[in-house]
Amino acid sequence: MKFIQVKDYKHLSREAADLIINRVRQKPSLKLGLATGETPIETYRLLIDDHQKNGTSYKQVKTFNLDEYVGLSGEHEQSYHYFMKKYLFDHIDIPKECTYIPNGNGQGLAECNLYEDIISQHGGIDLQLLGIGRNGHIGFNEPGTSFDSKTHVIDLTPSTREANARFFNGIEKVPTKAITMGISTILQSKEILMIISGESKREALHNLIHNGIDEAFPASALKNHPNVTVIVDEAACGNTRLPN
Ligand code: PGA
Fold it and tell me: Which of 9, 34, 39 to mutate to test the pocket of ligand 1 (most atoms within 8 A of CB)?
């Protein structure tokens, strides 16, 4: 794992966007894995800015999102379909049919297998963008998820539903399930870019560096991967010393 430390969220987003832009320019038909959450929002804004100012094109790019809630329509403001349109897809030249997101209204296992097939048929993901949860989750793969897992449906933990209740006007409206790429799906990406920002991720970053490889901490699976870049800001680092 290669760590890059930057000053703050703004610099982290610049660094992440530059890496993605670089890969798209090197390979205009890049297969790009995408993430939702707060961390990548500024990175996406910088991709849009670069597309508008410098003309970087996504016409041949295919994107694959990590996860989606089960049971929300793509028009629901909390769905990841909606998030991706709002923060990226509606503002770049990528054809809609080239943006793949797990279908939260699909047929369970059949939908999971279909998503795996779609990724394979495109030759796999070249670059996967990832955030990290405070508990080390990647995608919706919570602690204890098998490192061999493929795309699967998970039960959202009570704490995750509680944390998201504010976005849904009440916990009873928060979906109880989600569909997520598995850890093995993520590890098959040729390159992985993880972004970790803010004090709330300090413990997660510390554990990522110091914990062994253990299913109790999903992000530790990345230590098995040969091409991972982790961009961190000073707030996430605190006193943690990054490996050389
Ligand atoms: P965040 O989410 O970017 O909103 O912190 C990251 C994650 O939970 O994977």
Answer: 39
Residues within 6 Å of ligand 1 by CB: 37-39, 131-133
Domain ranges for the chain? 2-236
Cite the active site residues.
67, 135, 137, 142
Which residue matches tokens 């430390």?
Answer: 5
* Chain mean position to CA 105: 20
Nearest-angstrom CA–CA distance, 64 and 235: 29
One digit per residue, the tens of pLDDT, for the chain of length 244 reads: 999 999 999 999 999 999 999 999 999 999 999 999 999 999 999 999 999 999 999 999 999 999 999 999 889 999 999 999 999 999 999 999 999 999 999 888 999 999 999 999 999 999 999 999 999 999 999 999 999 999 999 999 887 888 788 889 899 999 999 999 999 999 999 999 999 999 999 999 999 999 999 999 999 999 989 999 999 999 999 999 999 7
Question: Distance (Å, rounded) from C-alpha 24 to C-alpha 129?
Answer: 13
pTM above 0.85, yes or no: yes
Phi-psi region of 46 (alpha: psi -120 to 50; beta: other; left: phi over 0): alpha
- CATH code: domain 2-236 is 3.40.50.1360
Q: Are 187 and 100 in contact (CB under 8 A)?
A: no
DSSP secondary-structure letter at 138? Answer: B
